[in-house]
């Protein structure tokens, strides 16, 4: 089973790239982030025409997450995280697909920091950790897939100096991510590439793609049952270089059945 996390950066603008990716790679599950479209305008017909069922949690112009499954309709388990009833951001969607629980996650960016956006980011990490703890207790194969907006280690970025003031790399952001993983989750890409140096995001500015000035913020965390089935993990990097591509590359894990 190939499970992909893909920050699409606007599903309307990137729909040709998404459909192209589905046709060429035929992943079993795709977790999308940053749909930037409402529930009503999600392109369900195009997704179904590509052979995929979908569940989505949209938001006009901002955020938005979805889970796609090849030849099947994902069964929704939960949308949104507990802890802040007033939080209307569409950032979390959890589904069941053939006995595997998959969550699409779009963690807040947190910039500028310090400030209220950074505080919200840290609270959101804690809320995610609370949900992750519940999922671990179920003892099922679970994959927490998404754009975490956290650079976990120094070797997960092209330049520590360039990112030193960014919310993605603050000690509090990293500590929140570490606490989450320490519950018993396996960072699939880190396990496959323990020395780092693998990027999932390249900014549109300053020729970042051409210079390979990227960093790793898209992660797939595996529960122990899922980690036992880990076959491979990687980044479909070439898709970042295509015309009108997202600034993220599809990032994936393969689990044995």
From TrEMBL:
Pfam families membership: Exo_endo_phos
UniProt site (Interaction with DNA substrate): 248
Active-site annotation: 106, 147 (proton donor/acceptor), 248 (proton acceptor)
Record's cofactor remark: Probably binds two magnesium or manganese ions per subunit.
Cofactor(s) needed for function: Mg(2+); Mn(2+)
Enzyme class at the top of the EC tree: hydrolase
Annotated site, Important for catalytic activity, chain positions: 218
The entry's keywords: Hydrolase, Magnesium, Manganese, Metal-binding
InterPro entries documented for this protein: AP_endonuc_1, AP_endonuclease_F1_BS, Endo/exonu/phosph_ase_sf, Endo/exonuclease/phosphatase, ExoIII-like
Gene3D superfamilies, sorted: Endonuclease/exonuclease/phosphatase (3.60.10.10)
Binding site for Mg(2+): 7, 34, 147, 149, 247-248
Enzyme Commission number, as recorded: 3.1.11.2
GO terms (BP aspect): DNA repair
GO molecular function, one term: double-stranded DNA 3'-5' DNA exonuclease activity
CDD domains listed in its UniProt record: ExoIII-like_AP-endo
Source organism, top-level taxon: Bacteria
Endonuclease/exonuclease/phosphatase domain span: 4-248
Record keyword Nucleotidyltransferase present: no
Site entry (Transition state stabilizer), positions: 149
SUPFAM superfamilies, alphabetized: DNase I-like
Protein family according to the UniProt entry: Belongs to the DNA repair enzymes AP/ExoA family.
The protein's name in its UniProt record: Exodeoxyribonuclease III
The species this protein was found in: Sphingomonas aliaeris
Gene name in the database record: xth
């Amino acid at each position: 089973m190939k499970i992909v996390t893909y920050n699409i950066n606007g599903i309307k603008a990137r729909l040709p790239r998404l459909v192209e990716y589905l046709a060429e790679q035929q992943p079993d599950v795709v977790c999308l982030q940053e749909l930037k479209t409402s529930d009503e305008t999600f392109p369900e017909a195009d997704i179904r025409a590509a052979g995929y069922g979908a569940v989505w949690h949209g938001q006009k112009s901002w955020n938005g997450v979805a889970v796609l499954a090849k030849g099947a309709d994902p069964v929704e388990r939960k949308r949104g995280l507990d802890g802040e009833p007033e939080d209307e951001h569409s950032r979390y969607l959890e589904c069941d697909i053939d006995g595997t629980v998959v969550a699409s996650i779009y963690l807040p960016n947190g910039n500028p920091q310090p400030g209220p956006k950074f505080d919200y980011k840290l609270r959101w990490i804690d809320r995610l950790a609370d949900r992750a703890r519940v999922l671990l207790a179920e003892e099922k194969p679970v994959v927490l897939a998404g754009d975490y907006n956290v650079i976990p280690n120094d070797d997960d970025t092209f330049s520590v100096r360039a990112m030193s003031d960014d919310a993605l790399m603050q000690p509090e952001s990293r500590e929140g991510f570490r606490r989450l993983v320490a519950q018993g989750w396996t960072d699939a890409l880190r396990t496959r590439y323990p020395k780092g140096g693998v990027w999932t995001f390249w900014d549109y500015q300053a020729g970042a793609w051409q210079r390979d000035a990227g960093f790793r913020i898209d992660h797939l965390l595996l529960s122990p049952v899922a980690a036992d089935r880990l076959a491979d993990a990687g980044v479909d990097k070439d898709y970042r270089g295509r015309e009108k591509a997202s600034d993220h590359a599809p990032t994936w894990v393969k689990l044995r059945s």
